[in-house]
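Continuing the series of single-chain predictions for the mutant panel. This is the parent chain; the variants come on the following pages.
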Amino acid sequence: MALRAITLLGNPGARLPQFISYAYASRVQTALQQELLAWKARPPASRGPPPPPSVICFTPAPTYTFGRRQTEPLSAAEEARLRAPLSLPTAKRPNHETNGRVYTETNARFLPAVTRAPRGGLTTYHGPGQLVIWPVIDLHSPLHPHLSVRDYACLLEKSTIAVLKKSWWGTQIDPFTTENPGVWVKSNRARCESGNMAAPTDDRKIAALGVHLRRHVTGLGVAINFSMPVVGSSDLNPWDRIVACGLGDRRVTSISAEANRVSDMYDLDEDEELLGDLAERWQTEFERRLMMHNPADSDLKAVLEDEANNRVTASPYG
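Parent structure:
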């Protein structure tokens, strides 16, 4: 049984980078969920083969989402702070040469979206430099062993840990789980003390986890912080505007930050390649652990054909 992998492509290599809107990715997810729910609603004798499990991968335009625990409405000042322009200094090839490579410097900015998500928890952020992974599966599907909610959360966490646990640019990352949702890393105290990176010495979240279920059909999933900014002022660092998931005593990190691969410019060409590879490896790990069988297929062309019209384009500044 082959996992149905769906990658929603932005266009980060454009003169002004474009990323998939969170709203569009949610519509694709809903279409996949409805496909599974419609199959489950049919009488067993007339169901036919079940739809295969799917995984949606994308890098979103800047978006703040609120979970179900966020019951208090935002004040006008709070909403204005979240929606304030967010700068994205980028480096793309070609133009002038830097360190043996050829780059074009582009200053772009986005106005972040603010929306609710059907998950637990409080406020979090999604945006460029992050890989969002949303499996859409039926936990009670005949195509794989049945899963409890806890089993499924562990599946997401273990798949993420497996692909992160390696050397990144010479730095070993050793992720783990805690009593709080998501995947975490320990601070590299020696690197902090050497002055190479200003960071706290406690646990830091490198991947967020949020799940929604309807009749055992999953929604949402994992967001891995790859190269997004995690330090600095709020015009560049989106995390400076919120207390991520309500955990005020914990910080957010990224693969690049842990590997001390932090720059004033983001190489979107290289990031796109690396994020694509990370997505493929995560899907392979998830599929292996899900232990699927029995082939099936489904055509999502009508759902996906509007992809290009649902990218959010940056605005120039400077």
